Amino acid sequence: MQEAAMPRTRANPPSQPPAGQPGHAMMRIAARFRAGTGALAALAVAAALGGCAFAPAAPTVTYDLGPPAGAAPGATPLPRLRVAQTDGPTWLDGNGLYYRLHYAQAERLQPYATQRWVMSPVRLFDERLREAVASRGALTWYGDTAAPAVKVDMLEFEQVFDSASASRGVIRVRATVFRSGLIGQKTFVAEQPAPTADGAGGVKALAAASDAIIAAILDWAATLPLQQ
User: Fold this and answer.
1) Which among 43, 45, 78, 167 could disulfide-bond with 137, CB atoms 3.0 to 4.6 Å apart, if both were Cys?
2) From CA 197, how far away is CA 17, in angstroms rounded?
3) What is the pLDDT of residues 194-208, one digit of tens each?
4) Which of 116, 198, 120 is nearest to 154 (CA)?
5) Is 182 helix (H, G, I), strand (E, B) or coil?
6) For 17, which DSSP code?
7) CA 183 centroid distance within chain
8) Is 30 helix (H, G, I), strand (E, B) or coil?
9) Residue scoring higher pLDDT (68 or 136)
10) Cα dist. 53→38, 47, 50, 56, 59 in Å?
11) Are strands 149-163 and 96-101 parallel, antiparallel or unpaired?
12) What is the pLDDT of residues 22-38, one digit of tens each?
């Protein structure tokens, strides 16, 4: 006599509402919420690791050399002069404000990220030179070949940091005076301390150095035989 077959048992599947019923829709919404929460958490971690990656960009600040200094009291008057366009190295063609960390990496020249000149510093210097000539005599147009000409080649125009808290504006130029031929040529260097160790301080130092070197060029030009 055969024994009656015992009924087979199996584990009941997890209770899950059939698709289309309200319970199934709620479970889908909850799953999406958990996924969204995880994505937001990942973004928060990325933001924390990235620091300022999501911070708004700092605004750009622009500078010029400030109001013209004018002729110093007792400065020697100049005869009628014309001014040739100032030239400089190609890295000064833009409006970058450059600095050098002399104490850390003297061979590296780099611009500030958010501080700029309003135009090329070569053009700013050129205008400064013309204003200074006009204040000490008569600035004539460049086609007036009867008048001697002043030509400046800019060799260096930068803020140099000697330490993290001390810097100076450094300008080096070569000045040439000519008419039909060479009358004189000389290299000038001017350095002025920056009142603050940042871009704004560098601008003040370079403006003061520009005025100092232009005054030195015109004082020297006044000693040359310009009237011949």
Assistant:
1) 78
2) 70
3) 999 999 999 999 999
4) 120
5) strand
6) P
7) 37
8) helix
9) 136
10) 20, 7, 5, 8, 16
11) parallel
12) 454 455 544 554 555 55
Of 27, 8, 9, nearest to 17 by C-alpha is: 27
Average pLDDT over residues 42-60: 54
CA 77 to chain centre: 37
Strand partners, 170: 158, 191
Plot region of 28 (φ>0 → left; ψ -120 to 50 → alpha; else → beta): alpha
User: Please, is 29 exposed, middle or buried when counting C-beta atoms within 10 Å of its C-beta (0-12, 13-18, 19+)?
Assistant: exposed
Task: Indicate the residue type of 144.
Answer: D
Helix runs in 51-173, H state only: 121-136
Would you state the structure tokens that stand for residue 97, as one six-digit string?
A: 């404000």
Mean of pLDDT values over 2-8: 43
Q: Which residue has the higher pLDDT, 195 or 51?
A: 195
Rounded CA-CA distance 25/40 in Å is 23
Distance in angstroms (rounded) separating the CA atoms of residues 197 and 15: 71
- The answer to whether residue 145 scores a pLDDT higher than 50 is yes
Q: Is-contact 168 191, C-beta < 8 A? A: yes
**Cβ-contact 125, 86 below 8 angstroms:** yes
